[in-house]
Amino acid sequence: MTQRAKIDTDGSETEAAGPPVVHRPAGLTSAEVAERVARGEVNDVPVRSSRSTTDIVRANVFTRFNAIIGVLWVIMLIVAPIQDSLFGFVIIANTGIGIIQELRAKKTLDGLAVIGEAKPTVRRDGVTAELSTSEIVLGDLIELGPGDKVVVDGEVAEADSLEIDESLLTGEADPVVKKPGDPMMSGSFVVAGGGAFTATKVGREAYAAQLAEEASRFTLVHSELRSGISTILKYVTWMMVPTAIGLIISQLVVKDNDLKNSIARTVGGIVPMIPEGLVLLTSVAFAIGVVRLGRKQCLVQELPAIEGLARVDVVCLDKTGTLTEGGMDVTELRPLNGSDETYVRKVLGALGESDPRPNASLQAIIDAYPDTVEWRCTEALPFSSARKYSGASFSEGDGENSTWLLGAPDVLLKAADPTLKEIDHLNEQGLRVLLLASTPHDLDSPEVATDAHPTALVVLEQRLRPDAADTLAYFAEQNVATKVISGDNAVSVGAVAGKLEMAGAANTVDARTLPTDREEMAKVLDENAIFGRVTPQQKRDMVAALQSHGHTVAMTGDGVNDVLALKDADIGVSMGSGSEATRAVAQIVLLNNSFATLPSVVAEGRRVIGNITRVATLFLTKTVYSVLLAVLVVVSQVEYPFLPRHLTLLSTLTIGVPAFFLALAPNKERAKPNFVRRVMRYAIPGGVIAAAATFTTYLLARHHYSGEGALEAETSAATLTLFLVSMWVLAIIARPYTWWRLTLVATMGGAFLLVLIVPWLQDFFALKLVGTTMPWAAVVIAAAGGLLLELSWHWVSRRFPT
How large is the angle between the packed helices 360-368 and 341-354, nearest 10 degrees? Predict the structure, then answer.
């Protein structure tokens, strides 16, 4: 097959018959590239798939609560024994764990980003090669094909029916036809045709890089979890400041005690108000989720996207590349209207040769009908998702010229054409059918498809993904609605979905009949699951319509026709083999191209959200009872019962260690909204009951004990009650029980018992139960508190359901 040539308007050809000599710019020479590199004219904008190491360390170390605890820790190191400074070492350990886990996640993200990074094709010294975007220099000649992203600003040097989508930059959805000399903006992408452009701006001077300076790629998608925790911490700060001031005044001024002891007990009251481990565990849970998914070749480009997909209740799927594998096979060729099959095969072979970047359908035709004739392509019209067909004009070598179209039969044929009935039978079997038609019009005529003469049907069989049926079944079990949105014939799409036993596969909708009103469209989308002949703009409109009905929408896709919808969906999921444009806008990239990875992402998100909700209740129950105990102490004008060492021990055994294990445990519970409300509805009654039970024990102990060592005995009794109530909270949070959860709770209880019976641990933590009356009273009060916990949480669950 020879290179194509354009027919001039006067009918003369610009090139002689036979293989034409086409001038192709050779691009820069190696010497010119070296010269530009030396001048620094390199596209040196770093691809950031994750936060930098400096940002990670800063985010974990320089926090508001770390600053507060740091000051209190220094004070305690000066005025009290080392036992009362243990909370500071715990914070250092927690911060270190957080940094290490995020660095692990960063390493995973960066490694996957390199694997998934698209490499533009650059022509140098007359040879094309794939290079990293950071290796492009000023003046480089960069080749483009369908789905390629424009990585730097430039000027078109070659154009072969080149159509560019600039919607991500301008908001205008219609493709722009580019000709030599036209400007190219980085951030746009090719929807049809091909060509090459010369880089005129690289690095931070490029348009997309300037946008990136304002909003880096690592911008977090909306995370209810993060924003909810931020809201909680804001309210905690408001409560903590006045309470801490009152406690300081109470212990240092009203009670004329030993100064160092008063300071120690004041700090002991302030430190537990801070839910310092909550933010840490959230970061750790996200980071470990990234590492886990990374092992499954899933690149999470924005961390809370894990959470977002767990909240999704509608998944929109593109059939090709998602339910079916990318490749296809030609199963039958049906000539129409008495056409000669041998001649039709020649036409198909020539059409295959006319497109240097064939899509999956055309590649199947190329494989079945390799080009063997010396027809010359004089003009080509590449395939576009919007028009649903491609075309080419040929000089057949015997003086005959012809123009052919290949595409969707129901687009190229009139609605009353009897051939459509024959095609419907094929579509009902899940087969894909393309129509080959001749046309008397020029390819650049707007009427090119109006009088198309049907010549043959090309029947293609799509290869179903072996894991697609199980994945669809998983979403059905999890009450996540699936919508198949495809550019193919609706009946054919429905048949494919039916083979996969997808619910609603029999009810298909041709998107050309969809209402344009968003509300009306949303109703149709809610009632149906299979949509065919969907244009790229309609995909975007359908996502918006679903969102208008309160749905959280995930969109999967791999082609340029999916980019707009991926960008607007709550969560965009791209296949690793998809176009560069789709990978650039998606939050999640499945590098192994396996739709079956999605359930793992959903499960990981549910694990993160469900477990953080559990452990947040533990942390905030502690905050509530700490604030209330401080208020009760101030109002009652008594010594604060605890030293920092007591609450460090309690926090470690009832919150810190258990929370770490609970946060990483499996959890398949579907993510629910209103994170703050769901956490606080349990934390508030839990904290109130714990504070009331503890202070009751403390007041009884003050009346029971007297003389030297009375305060230590009172503290020990109060500590016992608080520990038992806190353990009851932990036991409720750990439900439903498994062997390891029961072991975890029992181990924490055993550790506290060890402190009470081992002499040197008694001395170290200043905990020694005196007599039998008060210790048993403490146990009874704790048991009453536990029963109140059960009743109150049962009432809350019924009164304030989520």
Answer: 130
Length of the chain: 802
d(CA 777, CA 311): 46
| Among 154, 464, 98, 118, CA closest to 284 | 98
Measured between alpha carbons, how far is 388 from 337 in angstroms, rounded to an integer?
23
Which residue out of 148, 165, 318, 558 is catalytically annotated?
A: 318
Distance, in Å, from the CA atom of 736 to the CA atom of 725, rounded to the nearest integer, reads 19
Q: Taking the CB of residue 231, how many other CB atoms lie within 10 A of it?
A: 13
pLDDT digits (tens, 9 = 90+) for 747-773: 999 999 999 999 989 888 888 888 889
287: DSSP letter: H
Cα–Cα distance measured from residue 754 to residue 85, given in angstroms and rounded to the nearest whole number: 21
Q: Tell me the C-alpha to C-alpha distance, in Å, between residue 530 and each of 144, 481, 525.
A: 33, 11, 9
Residues 219 and 546: their CA atoms lie apart, in Å, by 24
Per-residue pLDDT of 173-184, as tens digits, reads 567 888 899 999
Catalytic residue check, 517: no
Token reading at 622: 């502690």
Here the tokens at position 272 are 């537990």
Alpha-carbon separation of residue 470 from 301, 374, 465, 584 (angstroms): 26, 48, 10, 28
Half-sphere exposure of 721 (CA within 13 A, CB side): 31
pTM over 0.85: no
Q: Which of 8, 201, 116, 43 is nearest to 590 (CA)?
A: 116
